[in-house]
Amino acid sequence: MIELRNDIFWVGHVDWAIRDFHGYLTDRGSSYNAYLVRDEKIALIDTVKAPFARHLLERVKQVVDPARIDYVICNHAEPDHAGGLTEVLRACPRAELVCNAKCRETLRRYQGGADWRVREVADGAELSLGRRRLQFIDTPMAHWPESMFTYLPDEKVLFSMDAFGQHYATAHRFDDEDDLAVILAEAKTYYANILMLYGKQVARVLDRAAGLPIEMIAPSHGVIWRTHGGRIVRAYRDWTVCRPSAKVVIYFDTMWGSTGAMAEALLAGAALPGVTVKLLKARTDHITALAAETLDAACLAVGTPTLNMGMMPEIASGLTYLKGLRPTGKAGLAFGSYGWGKNGPQEVAALLKEMKIESVRDPVLSNYAPDAAVLAECRAAGRLLAERALAGANATPP
Ligand code: FEO
Q1: pLDDT digits (tens, 9 = 90+) for 327-346
Q2: How far apart are CA 249 and CA 267, in angstroms?
Q3: What residues does 21 pair with on adjacent strands?
């Protein structure tokens, strides 16, 4: 049994096998964290995905009889955390479901729950468990409108739901028991793919949490932050503003190698000392990596050949995904090849403009295969991006 503090237990489920989380490539699995607080009253904080509810109940039974649980807190109605509610509440007949009004309505739409006993809590409300109390903090759009944190002030533990989480299956439950570089990388990938478009709202949440004494952050996915909490909070500060590092991302696809050769020439030009360059091919690298790499990049170059008078569908897919996540403060350019029809790179340029990615120059074009002059133009364009990335990173020191 995993105990965070005296009488506070982790009772979630580690999902080693999941590889697709609504389109997000979770190649290191995930976990759905739920927590049990045993006091004069007993509270379960969140549940798990529906198929794993019985595993949660088995863990709970190692601590208490589920029939003795007084409160089941729902911080977030998304089914990876609330999907198990129906089965869990059936096993906890005396429990009240505790959530805010928006969460109640969302749960009703998903699960009905006409027979549930619900205690609605407003932002800032408290619930006494006896020796300790729970406080509820609304955190709209981090991740959904009904999202909230549950805070245990007497223990300085913040149950932060999706915020600060990682899709990471591990045998360990705490940040100081595992490889911190991997945990932080997964936290970054998680932020980029789940929360990037809500940067302003997440920043407000951080401001609010900054006023709380916190010794432990217990998210709903991945490891619990008990040693490196300051590190993840600082990282979130950077991520909420997409703070640029000296990094150029080149995202491309190719049909017969022309746009591929242009991408390689861009890379060669961009590889100045101090500049990180990432080359991602749309049909090889998943959109999850595109989002994660773009989050802290200063520049993004996107290349496509012309297929059926437009960009390649794989590039359109990647850019549609990235557009939805709304990265901010990036510069970039479009490049690519064309034959008898000319519109592929131009379509990319128009989409980058819609995404408010500042164009550093007109699209770099090649009619069929790039000749020496086009490759030289690509190298120069790569250098331009690298110089821009260095300037951008220096303008926004950490
Ligand atoms: Fe992990 Fe927004 O659910």
Answers
A1: 999 999 999 999 998 899 99
A2: 9
A3: 24
Pocket of ligand 1 (CB under 6 A): 76, 78, 80-81, 143, 162, 220-221
CA–CA dist 238, 232 (Å, integer): 10
Please state, as a whole number, how many other Cβ atoms lie within 10 Å of the Cβ of residue 347: 21
* Catalytic residue (one of 22, 58, 362, 371): 22
> Under a CB-based contact definition with an 8 Å cutoff, are residues 209 and 151 in contact?
no
Active site residue 167: no
Which two three-digit tokens encode residue 329?
Answer: 């403060």
Can 46 be counted among the known catalytic residues?
Answer: no
Distance CA 369, CA 375 (A): 10
For residue 296, report the phi and psi dihedrals to the nearest 5 degrees. Answer: -110, 20
C-alpha distances in Å from residue 63, one per residue of 44, 56, 67, 130, 219: 12, 11, 12, 18, 21
Q: Which residue in 221, 236, 293, 296 is the catalytic one?
A: 221
| Angstrom distance (rounded) from CA 245 to CA 239 | 11
Nearest CA to ligand 1 atom 1: 162
Q: Is 55 tagged catalytic?
A: no
- Residue 1 token pair: 């049994």
Closest Cα to atom 3 of ligand 1: 78
CA distance 339 to 343: 10
pLDDT digits 0-9 by tens, 358-382: 999 999 999 999 999 999 999 999 9
State pLDDT tens for residues 128-160. Answer: 999 999 999 999 999 999 999 999 999 999 999
What's the 80 CA to ligand 1 centre distance in angstroms?
6
Residue 143 catalytic? yes
Enumerate the β-bridge partners of residue 247: 276
